[in-house]
Amino acid sequence: MINRRQLLVSGAALGALGVLPVRSAFAADRIDVFTSSDSNVSDWIANSVKPAFEAANPDLTINIVITRGAGGGGLAAIADRAFAAFQQKADPQVDFFEGFNELNPKGAIEAGLWTKFDESNLPSYGKVNKLGIETAYGLPYRGSQVLLAYDSTKVKEAPTTWEALTAWIKANPGQFIYNRPDKGGSGQNFVKRAIHEANGRDPSLFTVANFSKESADKMLPGAWKILSDLAPSLYDNGAYTAGNTPTLQLLANGAVSMVPAWSDQALQGLAQGVLPPTIKLVQLQDLALCGGFTHVTIPTNAAHQAGALKFAEFLLSEAVQTSVLKDLGGFPGVDWSNLPADLRTQYADVIPASIPTFPSGDWETAMVDGWYRNVAPNVNRG
Amino acid sequence: MTSLSAPLGRQKRARRFPVGLLLVAAPVILVVALVIYPILSSLSTTLNVDVAGAGRFSLANYARFFSDDQSLRNLRFTAWFTTTTVALLFLVCLPLALYLRFSFGRLPAFVQAIATFPLFVPGIIVAYALIRFIGPNGTLQSLLDAAGLHGYRTPYLTTWGPVIGLLWEGIPLTLLVLVSGLSQVPQAAIDAARDVGAGPLRILVFIILPLIRNSIIVALSLEFLRIFGAFTQPYLLGPASPESMGVYMQRTFGDLQDPVQAATQAMITFLCCSVAGVIYVRTIIANRRAGR
Questions:
Q1: Does the global pTM surpass 0.90?
Q2: Interchain CB distance below 8 Å, B257 and A365
Q3: Which of A80, A115, A293, A309 could cysteine-pair with A298, CB 3.0–4.6 Å?
């Protein structure tokens, strides 16, 4: 009879034999896709995009790594690691970033960390919606826009201009809330809309390249005045939730009757019954609330750069783009003209004529810092 | 948990074999590599200012922290909710621990099981559950309304939000340490005091509290350390401003992309926590000496 030690040793050896060949066979064509998007998106990638891609490309597999975490999510740390590996000429152990801003980490584009997209490496690049392209290093493949979600049993006439919205908030104290601008896009884009309002409703005044401290000091305080002025009329005299979900939670349980919300999250919430059917959506008509496109970045030093580009190309295919619209409640990343005509008619109401944007990078940093310094502390809770 | 407050001196002193040194080498190396080295590296980062490409010693980063209203407000808030929560923990857990020590049967066992339950619930679950319970139109408000009590104002998103969350999370550890301390109070001492006519309050103040002083210090300093660096509860239950140091550091590092200032905040947080750390270590050492 073998003793325990022999059993353990032989067991371990057998196990190692079994594991080794499998792992190396996988590693050869396994594309590591990192995402920190909300679970509606990561579920969609795992359950519909991944199987479709793998069926179309039997030699490639997708390994989805979810790095959802606090604030900017875990992707920033993964990108830092990829950048460090780039400088050390090592394997970054990541092939594909879903939902990452290519302007980070600082200096990465200049150093050559991110793959530059064009039609030579991405045949469908020409179809991409020009509204979504900030630089050629980030590929916008899906978008969504913030709109107002309201309880139609309590709000009879929903506001459709900024002026009407602020008037409504003041006339109904405690019935509106938005989240902190660094903790979720719905509150963030509400703050951005206030910045646009304070600057003649002209989003083109803000670009990635034109940031300077002087212009920030000149252009942002107007928005702080608008938002501070609203604070006493917000829920609990100026409370701000810590994310998109807590905001919707307050709307769903009737604590407030209007909030800014992501189109995709609200539509999905309604479809799944998480939000009561009495919740309705409306967009401002004078200037829409900002939207954003989710960018894909691919490190140039990725072990499977070619496979990652193949996956990116797949995301731009008609099937996936239609699914973004139908299953995710988002906007396609390709120009609407590339979608089937019947879909365009069906979604005519939600096709935005324009999606105002606000540049990420320095402007966003200045916005978050300014909001925390000027708006958040301005609370008087007697 | 018992080893924290048990008189260790009763154990036989081990002979100093090199094997013993080898055994402690692994944790010591880990502590040096994962704690001491990062502290020193942060310290040197925050104390150096880049002047024309060369690093020079400077307190500028700290001066910036202490001249910034927002940073000071956040530090004060963190100190406030930490001391408040620790004080509340003591007030809640001491009676509970006394009850568990001096009563027998099924009910106390049940109470102890309930009280240690939070130990097994992750912080983020606690936060979302509390939002539903104490939040607006939540369970608590519905119960109060049903009882005819209106005008409930939820602590969610106010400075009391994190206090409630952290209190709930902190009960098990504090309770376990206090109960283990109380279990070492000799019944004979209490009986003797009772025989000479001491009432319950006198026994508590003059017999029990002095005997479990070390357990109290250990429990409260451990809780202080945990709460000062808290992240999840202040993040989800607290107000947008002021922020806890943990949340503030993360935002400075992640959103404002200012690692040096984030490291400065971390060093200041570390200094505040090391006060509690020193008290904890001194208590442990005093325990050992007393037991020798």
A1: no
A2: yes
A3: A115
